[in-house]
Automatic annotation (TrEMBL):
InterPro entries, alphabetized: GlpE_sulfurtransferase, Rhodanese-like_dom, Rhodanese-like_dom_sf
Classification via PROSITE patterns: RHODANESE_3 (PS50206)
Listed name of the protein: Rhodanese-like domain-containing protein
Segments forming domain Rhodanese: 11-98
Organism per entry: Nonomuraea longicatena
Length: 107
């Protein structure tokens, strides 16, 4: 199955951004508008992911998010993988925040 992909620079500012990384990765740096559901919790929390609109899925480099997007599409969501993950997000100079008191970075 092919998963739709988008470049980080092309993700709409008002798009629903789902970050499936682990907690320590999230804390180090994430997009301010992102919703955090670690990949391991996604099946149990799928009802939190909106239906009927595009969901842009991100992880560190794009592998986990591609799997998550494929599964979300399989269960009826409209998921798009962000090619290159948070590394591409950071390289595109998209906004990032951290919860560590330090400058955000991709962990």
């Amino acid at each position: 199955m092919t998963v739709p992909e988008i470049e980080a620079k092309d993700v709409p500012d008002d798009g629903y951004l789902l970050d499936v990384r682990e907690q320590e990765e999230w804390v180090a740096g994430h997009a301010p508008q992102a919703v955090h559901i670690p990949m391991g919790e996604l099946q149990a929390r799928v009802e939190e992911v909106p239906a009927g609109q595009a969901v842009y899925v991100v992880c560190r480099v794009g592998g986990r998010s591609a799997h998550a997007a494929a599964w979300l599409n399989h269960v009826g969501r409209e998921a798009v993988n962000i090619d290159g993950g948070m590394y591409a997000w950071e390289a595109a100079k998209r906004p990032m925040v951290s919860e560590t008191g330090q400058p955000p970075f991709v962990a």
